[in-house]
Design a protein that fits this description.
Elements (H helix, E strand, L loop, with lengths): L41 H12 L18 H25 L9 H9 L12 E8 L10 E3 L4 E4 L9 E4 L3 E3 L6 E2 L3 E2 L9 E5 L10 E5 L1 H5 L6 E12 L4 E6 L18 E10 L22 E4 L2 E4 L9 E3 L11 E5 L14 E16 L2 E10 L16 E9 L4 E2 L8 E4 L11 E7 L2 E4 L6 E5 L4 E4 L4 E4 L4 E4 L2 E4 L2 H7 L6 E7 L5 E7 L3 E4 L7 E7 L7 E3 L4 E4 L14 E3 L2 E6 L1 E8 L9 E3 L7 E3 L6 E3 L2 E4 L2 E5 L12 E6 L5 E5 L15 E7 L12 E4 L6 E5 L13 H14 L6 H9 L4 E9 L6 E8 L10 H13 L6 E5 L1 E13 L5 H15 L11 E2 H9 L4 E11 L10 E2 L16 E5 L5 E4 L2
Parallel strand pairs: 42-43, 49-50, 51-55, 51-56
Antiparallel strand pairs: 1-36, 1-47, 2-5, 3-4, 3-46, 4-36, 6-35, 7-20, 8-11, 9-10, 9-12, 10-11, 12-19, 13-14, 15-18, 16-17, 16-19, 17-18, 21-34, 22-32, 22-35, 23-26, 23-31, 24-25, 24-30, 26-29, 27-28, 27-29, 29-30, 33-34, 37-45, 38-44, 39-40, 41-42, 41-45, 43-44, 48-49, 51-53, 52-54
Helix pairs in contact: 1-2, 3-6, 6-7, 9-10
Organism: Denitromonas ohlonensis
Protein name: Baseplate assembly protein
């Protein structure tokens, strides 16, 4: 140490640092993600020690006048400041680890959570349903089987993926005849009042528009006085070349309102009336033109006043002479007389029409009324309404030469959607609540001829012009518009309205390029179109209902009532239903000997050999349940959350998991929980391994059978595997751990319902609203799955959450769960960058920062997005000097505007209707528009 004195006029810095700056004052406002706990840094400590070198309180140091850094004493202060800097740094880190919000180590979060009885969630396995195909042997009876629990099916991995195994979790009855059940595509033809069409077998019917047909049954055959028949003139004849059938239509509906007459209902036959003819004498010359009283025809004429008429010029009711010689008119054939009186009957058959059957037919020549020719004399089976005044010779039309035509069942064209399905055959042994798999193409809709001015309003904004012949796919049930009021239509009602110009329809459609949107058009501008072989199939899982006779069997068909409406709109002809469906979850079964018990040892521990232990979705407070089954000496022991306060003889155990997902089983000490009984390898476990988001597979991915029950030839997952969740992250643990203290495993207040749902496995975000009255009275809960995934009503997570809220909440309070509404926005930014930074790197960093800041994980229900927020995120990227937001708008709005603040809606209680689910506004997946300022 130097003690040399220097002149007072010399600048020796001996008075530098005369103020101590440590310990620094610490201030931590609430809500910080990190707390400040350092009393100083290296420079602060150096400055404080140098200040104390000049302090009057330490006169012994007055002789130290140098402040040179090379001085040994000052070097020691520098070393000490370095030590203090390191110590204060780790003290701050240590302090941060003692608060849930600021801790960064998983161990810290886990231990603090355990203080309030919360364990970091280990994750949960994804769930789905598997549709199995059974072997069919032609000619051999199909024996029913049961697909056992544990049947394994593995996925086909894509690039950079690993194969995932799923196992069935419930025994499932299966039948080979359930492999591909068709839906009803035809109905037995039975004429009824109001019908205007029927279908005939074959293409060579010989019919043309203007031809007449007869629809008659056994009522008229057995009773000549019966009026249960109809004669109609065809308006159109349309052959169906693909299916070998012909559609015939007429304008005047079957039946009659006055007098009240119904079509035939028994032994119905359809006949074509091939010949249009008249009665003999219809073309007789007018006798008034043939002479006077002295002429030789006077003897053939009746003279009434000044008018002459032929003798017997009237209908002979016992023998009708037709003005033709037709050998195809035979005894037993049908013919009809039409009076042809204007103002009566229908436009195609004016006047009065009566049906007769020929009991006798004679082919002969006749000479009368100054004409001669061959005639067909027909004796009718009845003279009912057969009078000369009703059917004059000159006016009556005769429809004759009946030829029976074969009919076919009436095809059903309307699409399949909604809550009701009719199978195309009688299917026995289906059970209420049974899952079924539907697979087929979507229904096509075509733009009708001469339709103009139509366009598809695309969901992402803009529109696509549609022209005659364009075909699109239906994505949702059809809606009819009464003014601006939409009314949902059944599939049958929708098909009946097509072709009507007075009806306005609104459809959710998808075009051939995958763009989705809505179309508003008249019924006459749309028509159903047949599916094509290259149409991509869609599939889903539905459940047969459990109430009000959901399964009805009749002679030919099976009528099913579903628990919920179908998610897709299917083309009827190609739709197939598989009823060999079993629930399955991610993971594979492990059976092992865990070890040997030792009654002399307390709190024995054993580690499971395989990891991670599978947890499945359940209606518990946490939303998950372990798959572990542990038996000691073949006696099943029970897992408990903690051994604390367990009875001394209770056969219970506790499990813990480390950060790597390895599970350890802990047994009691005889005071809290029973000790293990001594024995050699007497601990046997059965559990499943595998869980997490890797099990969330798309539909159709699970196709490889790893275990093959007798008769099973294939399997597939018709719906995606959902609900898989990785082990709880620190961010989620910080949010979820306090929720258990807020709810205490029950839901009482409206906040409890939201907090309970947020802490439930498979649920990421939730919003609850209390609605005191109206159609949506009760708890209205908006939910979002992990990373924004939808939670289908058929999913285990949805059902278990609902059951848990009923169990741990008020079971008498109505509860409605809806998936959130995924709203998106787009933006355009002008960026001015620092020239020292690479352009591409800056733009990529800006886009990454925006996507992170406005991702699902960082946003909340109802949270707004403003220009300032977008600009601030971009401005915080290194290399960005200035930012100008030139566009900010919601998807679907005009892209040319800048909205200062975009709002996301929250549900609003209503006394008149059901509110919409909560919105969550995030950045659209489309590329962000970034331009560079000079």
């Amino acid at each position: 140490m130097s003690t040399a004195r220097v002149s007072p006029s010399t600048d020796c810095d001996c008075c530098a640092g005369i103020d101590a700056v440590t310990p620094a004052r610490i201030s931590n406002p609430p809500g910080l993600s990190q707390i400040a706990y350092r009393i100083g840094r290296h420079g602060d400590f150096v400055e404080s020690m140098r200040a104390r070198l000049s302090s009057a309180d330490r006169p012994a140091l007055a002789a130290l006048t140098t402040r040179e850094a090379s001085d040994f004493t000052l070097a020691i202060t520098d070393a000490l400041a370095t030590s203090l800097d390191v110590l204060s740094f780790y003290t701050e880190r240590f302090a941060n680890e003692h608060y849930l919000r600021t801790a960064t180590e998983r161990l810290s979060v886990r231990e603090m959570a355990r203080l309030i009885g919360y364990e970091l969630a280990p994750g949960v396995a994804a769930g789905t349903h598997l549709a199995f195909t059974l072997q069919t042997i032609p000619g051999a009876p199909a024996e029913p089987i049961t697909i056992p629990v544990g049947t394994r099916v593995q996925s086909v991995p894509g690039q950079d993926e690993q194969a995932q195994s799923f196992e069935t979790v419930a025994p499932t009855p299966a039948r080979a005849e359930w492999n591909a059940l068709p839906v009803q595509t035809r109905v037995r033809w039975q004429p009824k009042s109001g019908d205007t069409e029927l279908w005939l077998d074959g293409l060579a019917t010989g019919l043309q528009p203007g031809d007449a047909i007869l629809i008659v049954g056994s009522e008229r055959m057995s009773d000549p006085g019966s009026e249960r028949w109809d004669v109609r003139v065809l308006a159109s004849v349309t052959p169906d070349n693909t299916r070998g059938r012909t559609r015939v239509r007429w304008d005047h509906p079957l039946g009659s309102a006055f007098p009240a007459m119904s079509p035939s209902s028994l032994g119905v036959q359809v006949h074509a009336l091939r010949q249009r003819t008249a009665l003999f004498g219809h073309n007789a010359p007018d006798p008034n033109l043939m002479g006077n009283d002295d002429s030789n025809v006077a003897t053939l004429i009746n003279k009434t006043g000044s008018s002459w008429q032929w003798h017997n010029f009237a209908l002979d009711t016992s023998a009708l002479d037709l003005d033709t010689d037709n050998a195809k008119i035979t005894a037993g054939s049908w013919f009809a007389l039409v009076s042809n009186e204007p103002g009566l009957g229908s436009a195609a058959l004016p006047g009065y029409t009566e049906l007769y059957r020929a009991s006798k037919v004679i082919h002969r020549s006749r000479n009368a009324f100054a004409i001669a020719g061959k005639v067909t004399r027909v004796t009718p089976d009845t003279t009912e309404n057969l009078t000369a005044s009703r059917f004059p010779l000159r006016r009556t039309l005769v429809l004759a030469q009946s030829e029976q035509l074969d009919t076919v069942d009436t095809p059903v064209f309307h699409p399949v959607y909604g809550e009701a399905i009719t199978l195309g055959q009688r299917v026995a042994d289906l059970q209420p609540g049974q899952p079924i798999a539907l697979s087929g193409p979507r229904q096509r809709i075509a733009i009708a001829p001469r339709a103009a001015g139509l366009s598809l309003s695309v969901d992402g904004g803009g529109s696509v012009a549609l022209t005659e012949g364009d075909e699109l796919f239906m994505r949702a049930p059809a809606v009819r518009l009464f003014g601006s009021t939409p009314v949902a239509l059944s599939a049958e009602s929708f098909a009946a309205l097509l072709g009507k110009a007075s009806v306005m329809l609104r459809l959710a459609l998808e075009d051939r390029d995958g763009r989705t949107g809505t179309l508003t058009a008249k019924g006459s501008e749309l028509r159903l179109a047949d599916s094509r072989k290259d149409d991509a199939p869609v599939s889903e899982i539905a459940f047969i209902g459990t109430a009000n006779d959901p399964i009805i069997l009749d002679r030919d068909y099976t009528h099913l009532k579903l628990k919920a409406p179908l998610q897709q709109v299917y083309a009827r002809d190609a739709l197939r239903i598989n009823a060999n469906v079993a629930p399955a979850t991610h993971g594979e079964t492990v059976e092992a000997i865990l070890g040997s018990g030792d009654g002399s040892t307390a709190n024995q521990r054993f580690a499971l050999g395989q990891a991670p232990l599978t947890f499945v979705s359940a209606n518990t407070t946490s939303g998950r349940a372990s798959s572990l089954e542990l038996r000691v000496n073949d006696v099943l022991w029970t897992e408990v959350p903690t051994l604390h306060a367990a009875a001394p003889d209770a056969r219970v155990y506790e499990t813990t998991q480390d950060d790597e997902g390895r599970s350890t089983v802990l047994f009691g000490d005889g005071t809290e929980g029973a000790r293990l009984p001594s024995g050699s390898t007497n601990l046997r476990v059965r559990y499943r391994k595998g869980l997490g988001a890797a099990g969330n597979l798309a539909a159709g991915k699970l196709t490889t059978l790893l275990s093959r029950p007798l008769g099973v030839t294939g399997a597939v997952n018709p719906s995606p595997a959902t609900g898989g969740e990785d082990a709880e992250t620190l961010a989620r643990a910080r949010d979820n751990a306090p929720l258990t203290v807020l709810t205490l495993d029950r839901a009482v207040s409206i906040d409890d319902y939201a907090n309970f749902a947020r802490a439930f496995a498979g649920i990421d975000k939730a919003h609850a609203l209390w609605i005191p009255a109206g159609p949506a009275r009760g708890v209205f809960l908006s939910i979002a799955g992990i990373d924004g995934a939808l939670v289908p009503e058929s999913d285990d997570t949805y059902k278990n959450l609902r059951d848990a809220l009923v169990t741990y909440g008020d079971p008498l309070v109505p509860l409605r769960l809806l998936n959130f509404r995924d709203a998106r926005f787009r933006c355009r930014l002008s960026i001015k960058r620092d020239k020292a930074y690479e352009l591409d790197a800056v733009l990529a960093a800006v886009e990454a920062a925006l996507r992170e800041a406005f991702s699902f994980a960082r946003r909340a229900f109802g949270q707004t997005v403003s220009i300032d927020e977008v600009a601030a995120v971009a401005q915080g990227v290194p290399g960005v000097i200035a930012v100008h937001v030139t566009r900010l708008y919601r998807v679907g709005q005009s892209p040319t505007v800048v909205v200062p603040r975009l709002f996301a809606a929250l549900p609003v209680a209503s006394l008149t209707g059901v509110p919409l689910a909560a919105e969550l506004l995030t950045l659209a997946a489309d590329p962000i528009e970034l331009e560079v300022l000079p």
